Amino acid sequence: MQKNILVTGGAGYVGSHVIVSLLERGYGAVSVDNFRNASPEVYGRLRELSGKDFAAAGADACDAEAMARVMRTHDIGAVIHCAGYKSVPESIQKPLEYYENNLGSTIALCKAMRETGVTRLVFSSSATVYGESKVLPYTEEHPTGNCASPYGMSKVMNERILTDAAAAYPGWGVVLLRYFNPIGAHPSGRIGDAPGGVPGNIMPYLLKVATGKLPVLPITGGDYDTPDGTGLRDYLHICDLAEGHVAALQYLETFTGTETVNLGTGRATSVREIVRAMEKAIGKPLPTEIKPRRPGDIAEMRADPAKAKRLLGWEARRSLDEMCADSWRWASRNPAG
Ligand code: UFG
After folding, report:
1. Which of 155, 203, 305, 328 sits in a 20 to 30 Å window from 279, CA-based?
2. Ligand 1 and 231: CB distance under 6 A
């Protein structure tokens, strides 16, 4: 019988969509979430929309003994580590909390894996690990480590911790997935991104403007050296991203060592283009105003997704219009998030 996959942060935006993909592909899933940034209601919705059951443990991923218990109890075959604090500005205000939580959970999971003989792990990393490049697109060989925020540095450090662990412990296999800009939601409209407070990222902000909770989208920088002056990013559908994790798990069936893989579409979209695509999905204009650039922002980020295709057989399939339509379905049906 196939072993179960432990998903940390399984009630969160990425983790919940990963669980759907796992269940769809016939895996057993076990979620661990402390609900610090997610709601337990997500689990009921996941069961409804997938028509399948999975186990949930209310433990903290930073607790190595609790993680070892979960791994033993549920016969875990691999870990997908999505749990973590993820706000760039908050990480600048609370660096110690960010390092403690984001590094502490990785170390605890590795200890629990060593203790219980689990040897496979997929990690939620981010394109934020790359320093600014004059050469586009970003390949996995691009230098990392020059991050402006503790959030970004916690991803860099986690990549290093996992690389060192995979080198030290025989038979370990680790895939570091560097996400570009995940947006969208499951097409059922039942799960999606639900950040608290004033959103920092563009899609949750646009959704608050679309639902009338915020009056206008600030376009943070209209004078970049890009075709329309606004920032270019590689947005990818959260369901494509989730499927990338299943592809990484399959790769780990035979791979030992560490591999780093970009998850992106390879296409860049400007702020103005994403606003237009959202207006099409919603059917009404969205007010915007040009504001100063955010400190640390760069003109363009775009993945070279060739390695994901070559190694994992994965490529993003869903269009920008689908990303916007699915985001809108989620936001309009769940005004409270
Ligand atoms: N933007 C606006 N207005 C806003 C918010 C964003 O115009 O209110 C613009 C930004 O200037 C940028 C684009 O929209 O050009 C995307 O910004 P996001 O904040 O949505 O995304 P980032 O590219 O800054 O950061 C995201 C994630 C990080 C991750 C990074 C990797 O938030 O966690 O991608 O590249 F590390």
Report:
1. 305
2. yes
